[in-house]
């Protein structure tokens, strides 16, 4: 259906998950009650390949850092189903700045009501002591935000480590900065160098398990801002790294 009241329908670029994406993930993406606005992001975000790579599956308990407006939150809620839980963190600053209205609407959608637990906490202390034995913690396109907002990323990564069960997955996607730029462009271009993330996360005790090139874009010049508010037509075309870290089993 078209977007009510906007005068023009949302353009939904075609997206078909790869053949080897597990069926429950394909079904979540194909669900008829997803919004057009969400579906419009699929081609740029490739949720089938991404959530397949991160091994998101039915019944899991998942933490999410910087849930934002909840595009990924809802997809994961559909995949984990009623036996699962998504603990979706947003900081007060993020909610007050732009996410409170979209997040409140997202949380109220019937599909999310009993599965998603919204958490309003600082990014470097995201879950609190009650959230533990998680199967995965996911942060999509937001590690750089924690850096430019001067959060203690070492503390954040340790909190993630502590919240995961042994063998649990720390799943990180972010926009690639130019080689050698480190964290110089986390605020200006909303990009971070992959090597910085790998160094910080492995320092917290994680092992880099695998990397996917599903969101690589070789022709990205890496010199423009990926912020959704300014990227315009380039949104979804940035070169992104997709990393799967694992908390070693004791």
Biggest beta sheet summary = 7 strands, mixed
Specify the number of helices.
Answer: 10
Cα end-to-end separation: 50 Å
Helix content: 25-40%
- Let me know the average pLDDT: 95
Form type: globular
Query: How many strands appear in the DSSP assignment?
Result: 7
Structural class: alpha/beta
Order of helices and strands: HHHEHEHHEEHHEHEHE
- Return residue spans where pLDDT drops below 50 for at least 5 consecutive residues: 1-5
What strand line-up does the widest sheet have? 3-2-1-4-5-7-6
Molecular structure report:
This protein has helices at residues 23-30, 36-45, 47-53, 71-80, 92-108, 110-113, 143-148, 153-163, 194-203, 228-231, and strands at 61-64, 85-90, 116-120, 134-140, 164-175, 207-212, 240-246. With 250 residues, it is of the alpha/beta class. Helix 4 (71-80) links the parallel strand 1 (61-64) and strand 2. Helix 1 (23-30) packs across helix 4. The longest helix is centred in the middle third of the chain and has 17 residues, at 92-108. The radius of gyration is 17 Å and the shape is globular.
What would a concise description of this structure say?
It contains 10 helices and 7 strands. It has 250 residues and is of the alpha/beta class. Helix 1 (23-30) packs across helix 4 (71-80).
Any key phrases for this structure?
seven-stranded mixed beta sheet, 7 strands, globular, 19% strand
Describe the SSE topology:
Blueprint: H1 23-30, H2 36-45, H3 47-53, E1 61-64, H4 71-80, E2 85-90, H5 92-108, H6 110-113, E3 116-120, E4 134-140, H7 143-148, H8 153-163, E5 164-175, H9 194-203, E6 207-212, H10 228-231, E7 240-246
Parallel strand pairs: 1-2, 1-4, 2-3, 4-5
Antiparallel strand pairs: 5-7, 6-7
Helix pairs in contact: 1-4
């Amino acid at each position: 259906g078209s977007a009510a009241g906007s005068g023009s329908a949302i353009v939904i670029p075609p997206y078909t998950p790869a053949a080897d994406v597990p069926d429950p993930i394909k079904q979540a993406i194909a669900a008829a009650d997803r919004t057009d606005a969400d579906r419009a992001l699929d081609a740029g975000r490739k949720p089938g390949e991404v959530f397949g790579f991160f091994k998101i599956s039915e019944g899991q308990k998942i933490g999410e850092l910087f849930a934002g407006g909840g595009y990924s939150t809802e997809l994961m809620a559909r995949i984990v189903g009623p036996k699962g839980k998504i603990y979706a963190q947003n900081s007060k600053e993020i909610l007050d700045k732009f996410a409170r209205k979209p997040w409140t609407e997202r949380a109220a959608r019937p599909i999310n009501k009993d599965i998603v637990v919204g958490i309003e906490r600082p990014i470097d202390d995201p879950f609190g002591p009650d959230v533990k034995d998680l199967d995965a913690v996911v942060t999509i396109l937001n590690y750089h935000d924690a850096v430019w907002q001067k959060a203690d990323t070492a503390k954040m990564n340790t909190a993630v480590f502590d919240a995961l069960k042994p063998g649990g997955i720390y799943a990180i996607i972010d926009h690639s900065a130019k080689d050698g730029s480190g964290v110089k462009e986390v605020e200006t271009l909303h990009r971070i160098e992959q090597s910085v993330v790998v160094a910080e996360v492995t320092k917290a005790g994680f092992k880099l398990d695998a990397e996917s090139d599903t969101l690589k874009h070789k022709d990205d010049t890496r010199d423009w801002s990926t912020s959704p508010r300014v990227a315009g037509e380039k949104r979804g075309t940035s070169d992104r790294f997709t990393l799967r870290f694992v908390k070693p089993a004791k």
